[in-house]
């Protein structure tokens, strides 16, 4: 039996933390190991507790979720953070995703959506739906106007290292397809897809699928 996923809850509203805690406490494979009410506390607890997944409120007084996410990821690139927000697809949540978060979740998400997102992020996937992926691209286009260029960030060499199949997998990830959907589309097993995804992220030096979406847009592989 594997160890439960260790979770840190970060929200300035105690009732929100209580509600999430009750939902997660009912799951045998999930364990809330700490709670923080602001970004500064989140950074401290992330360093001391080393949780597997952090549920991070994006809007908090003082140090907000965007900056807290940026600092936590900078200190520990393997951190997995899911952004919590009341507002669907707003620029604040998008900013946190760009800062290194691995997922996006509304605070009124259903219990099964919450637990599924945590398990997906812990498994190395990203909790970002196709609809949110498309909106991310729209916001990214607004933030960085102009035509994407393959040499924009000096990573064209890494892109050229991808095999044709890996290139296709990257585009599929950027379009918001899950491993199961990619497997069905290319008639592959899910284990084979996971292997391809891992190689794509390794070759491009990307931490997860959220970063793959941004990379793909910057290189003109997908468009909003």
UniProtKB/TrEMBL annotation:
Domain HTH luxR-type, chain residue ranges per copy: 155-220
Domain Response regulatory: start-end pairs: 6-122
Keywords in alphabetical order: DNA-binding, Phosphoprotein, Transcription, Transcription regulation
InterPro entries in the record: CheY-like_superfamily, NreC/VraR/RcsB-like_REC, Sig_transdc_resp-reg_C-effctor, Sig_transdc_resp-reg_receiver, Tscrpt_reg_LuxR_C, WalR-like
Pfam families, per the entry: GerE (PF00196), Response_reg (PF00072)
Transcription regulation among keywords: yes
4-aspartylphosphate found at: 57
SMART domains tied to this protein: HTH_LUXR (SM00421), REC (SM00448)
Protein name: Two component transcriptional regulator, LuxR family
Source organism, top-level taxon: Bacteria
């Amino acid at each position: 039996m594997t160890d439960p996923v260790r979770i840190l809850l970060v929200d300035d509203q105690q009732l929100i933390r209580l509600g999430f805690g009750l939902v997660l406490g009912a799951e045998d494979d999930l364990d809330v190991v700490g709670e923080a009410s602001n970004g500064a506390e989140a950074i401290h607890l992330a360093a001391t507790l080393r949780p597997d997944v952090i549920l991070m409120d994006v809007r908090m007084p003082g140090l907000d979720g965007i900056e807290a996410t940026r600092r936590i990821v900078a200190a520990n690139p393997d951190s997995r953070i899911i952004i919590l927000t009341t507002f669907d697809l707003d620029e604040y949540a998008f900013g946190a995703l760009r800062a290194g978060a691995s997922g996006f979740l509304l605070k009124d998400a259903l219990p099964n959506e919450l637990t599924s997102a945590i398990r997906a992020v812990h498994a190395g996937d990203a909790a970002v739906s196709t609809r949110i992926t498309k909106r991310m691209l729209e916001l990214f286009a607004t933030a960085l106007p102009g035509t994407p260029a393959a040499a924009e960030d000096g990573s064209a060499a890494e892109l050229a290292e991808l095999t044709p199949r890996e290139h296709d997998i990257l585009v599929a990830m950027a379009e918001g397809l899950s491993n199961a959907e990619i497997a069905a589309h290319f008639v592959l097993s899910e284990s084979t897809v996971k292997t391809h995804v891992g190689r794509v992220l390794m070759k491009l030096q990307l931490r997860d699928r959220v970063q793959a979406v941004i990379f793909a847009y910057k290189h003109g592989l997908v468009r909003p």
